[in-house]
Amino acid sequence: MAEQATSEVQHTEQMSFVRKYIFSVDHKVIGKQYLFLSLFMALVAGTMAYYVRWQLAWPETAVPGAGWIPEPTAFSGIIPPEFYNALVTMHGTIMVFFVGMPLLLGAFGNYLLPLMVGARDMAFPRLNMMSFWTIFTASLCMIASFFVEGGSAAAGWTGYAPLSADPIYTGVTWGLNLWIIGLALEFTSFLMGGINFLTTTVTMRAPGMTMLRLPLMVWMQITAAVLFMLSVGPLVAGAILLLLDRTVGTGFFLPGKGGDPLLWQHLFWFFGHPEVYVVLLPGIGAVMEILPVFSRKPIFGYRTIIWSTMVAGVLSFLVWAHHMYVSGMDPNLVMPFSITTILISVPFAVIIFAFMATLWGGSIEFKTPMLYAIGTVTTFIIGGVTGIFNGSPPVDIFIHDTYFVVSHFHFTLFPSVFLGGFAALYFWFPKMFGKMMNETLGKIHFWWTMICFNLVFIPMFVLGMGGHMRRIYNPMQYDFLKPMQGINQFITYSAILLLLGQIPFIVNFFWSMFGGKKAGDNPWNANTLEWATTTPVPHENFDTIPTVYHGPYDYSLPNQNEDWQPQHLEKEPAAVA
Amino acid sequence: MSGASTVTEYQATHTVPGRMGVWWFLASEIMVFGGFLAVYILYRMASHGAWAAMAEHVSAPIGTFNTVVLLTSSLTMVKAFEAVDKDARDKARNYLLITVLLGVAFLCVKGFEYSHEISMGFTPLSGSFWSFYYVLTGLHGLHVLAGIIANFCLYIMAVRGTLWSKNCQGRVEFAGLYWHLVDVIWIFLFPLLYLSY
């Protein structure tokens, strides 16, 4: 098989279009496939958010742009409660599993990891291809679920049992089965991806690339892969049991048949909390690459960041029940989980301080990737600090089922997925597509997104403190919520603006790809190995595998001619033979 | 180096990518079955003895026999690996065949057991214990089947002689690692399902 693969490599030039761009085994092409998939799914899930927001601001009026949805899903643009539940469920599911993970791990992990460690490809290129086509099939399952009898899953993105375990509660039959199958396929896809990430990093590093010379993005990617691999198993087990409850008629999660609905929550959150870091770590990994480059300083506390990440990774397995304070869990368990939850903010605070110390005294250049990187950190701090509120049970019991928590997790996930993702995209776009992105459009996109995001979610904290429940269809049914309806409408206006703010990005993305200024090999004067190869990157990444002489963040060192020292060049300028 | 199709001039560690990949795969499998077993044990503890009445209908002698079959197959798998290591090709081929046959024997006994239990009226819907019994042994059975297919492919390759090429070295080891995992999972399932009522 390897002989066959070698000959594949040698005959790249003659490969057909299908082998080269569709069923490709090249990690760079696969990374771009993930990128386009995730951006497409982001549009789908963003549209769902718009429908949801309209219903909350102007309940049971026709949503402009929803008239095309046939009955009985919607009635000439008016969204009925069943469809509203489906929209909320699928918005969450798609954003986390089909936007966040494919964008940060799938696209940037696949594209960057072999380049950054100095390898020719992933350790298992065909497994890599299979992982993309598995998540592609999973995406089709998710989209298909809207078109089956009974509509798509409507039990929340967490799929709490017994709501999800018996079709009589939601009226959804095959929609939720497809949801479970789609998620199971997505998990399989990222397990295959994770095996590739870890094996590539451990066994295929370039000469001289020790573990402590790896760029932090690689560290974040492999930590995320380990967290995912060790946390998803119990949920796979849970998903099998849930599917059997729905199809065969067993009663694992149905109290009437001797089951326990709370068990599903434990299985879901045992995975769900590490999953938050699976999405976060690659996002801040991109920030860790961008900050040193645009402040021309070494990153502060390289090893401290790695150790903090590992501590956070271990702790992330011990905090899951903080999602369940209001679920009727044993009160004796509340205190230990509260302590671990508040503890986990410590390693992340260390990382944030390391970021600030990196910026301190640097020659900061506010290019678009840098703006996004700083935006990621500042926005995430709000998410992190409100997380401490939620970690404290007396506070959490009041705010947990309100919009406070909705706002909190958007303040953690939006920065990691979108701000971190955009930072990465603006930063690595020149390497991926060989063209520079337009700076002016990029800055317009940044400020528009940043301001509108805060206008959407800061008022949501106020709504939540006012007692606005999370999962309601029509706030106007409650007298005590009526005075706050103005805030709901303000949020919806801002959300529409936030969605429109992505137009500059879409224009910039395609316009730059085809007509942008040609990028050199290393437009940002960065040190890591992906900038050491030519642009566009050749099929096997490097003409000859580079030798690595030092760590990735040697910027502005004393007694050097340049303020940057690429990893593959020796430090003394005189020593270049 | 089964899956590694890239040209590597330099190797960072002595571990070949294939072995490392298999170990990570096994780690994720352990988490899946670990989740199942944890759920099973918690339910069983919460049942306050109600499961014991259901659990006494499974046949411990048949379970013991199957345990012996599966353990023996692990032994023959190790023997096959040892023979590959010493380049004793006929021996390796025969041991692979015995491993496959023992795996098939395990599934046949399991199938006989299922049909007997169903004929007595114990189906996956006959209570929580039985639901777990069929899910756990069924999923384990699927893993056994996957292992049988992998080992049978290796046997065919051994017969044709393609197993001895440099690109295929390590495959018997990787299949063996997986086969032992399937065996270890059974070592947990056997006492939990058959012996603890």
Descriptive tags:
heterodimer, A: 577 residues, mainly alpha, Cytochrome C Oxidase, Chain A, 3 domains, 63% helix, globular, B: 197 residues, Four Helix Bundle (Hemerythrin (Met), subunit A), 77% helix, elongated
Architecture overview:
The complex is a heterodimer of chains A (577) and B (197). Chain A has helices at 2-10, 17-22, 27-57, 81-117, 125-144, 167-170, 174-203, 216-247, 261-295, 302-315, 331-343, 345-359, 368-391, 393-399, 403-433, 439-465, 485-500, 503-515. With 577 residues, chain A is mostly helical. Chain A folds into 3 domains: 80-259; 310-433 and 437-516, Cytochrome c oxidase-like, subunit I domain (Cytochrome C Oxidase, Chain A); 534-577, no CATH class. Chain B has one domain (17-195): Cytochrome c oxidase, subunit III, four-helix bundle (Four Helix Bundle (Hemerythrin (Met), subunit A)). Helix content of chain B is 77%, strand content 0%. The chains are: A mainly alpha (577), B mainly alpha (197). At the A-B interface, helix 1, helix 5, helix 7, helix 8 and helix 9 of A face helix 1 and helix 5 of B.
Task: Give a topology summary.
The complex is a heterodimer of chains A (about 575) and B (about 200).
Chain A: H1 2-10, H2 17-22, H3 27-57, H4 81-117, H5 125-144, H6 167-170, H7 174-203, H8 216-247, H9 261-295, H10 302-315, H11 331-343, H12 345-359, H13 368-391, H14 393-399, H15 403-433, H16 439-465, H17 485-500, H18 503-515
Chain B: H1 17-46, H2 50-55, H3 60-85, H4 89-119, H5 128-160, H6 171-195
Helix pairs in contact in B: 1-6, 3-4, 3-6, 4-5, 5-6
User: Number of DSSP helices of chain A?
Assistant: 18
Using only C-alpha atoms, the radius of gyration of chain B works out to: 19 Å
CATH superfamily of chain B: Cytochrome c oxidase, subunit III, four-helix bundle
Unreliable stretches of chain B, pLDDT < 50, 5 or more residues?
Answer: 1-8
Q: Report the structural category of chain B.
A: mainly alpha
* CATH superfamily caption of the largest domain in chain A: Cytochrome c oxidase-like, subunit I domain
CATH class of the largest domain in chain A: Mainly Alpha
- End-to-end Cα distance of chain A, whole Å, is 41 Å
Radius of gyration of chain A equals 24 Å
Q: State the CATH class of chain B.
A: Mainly Alpha
What is the element string of chain B, with H for helices and E for strands? HHHHHH
* Assigned CATH architecture of chain B: Up-down Bundle
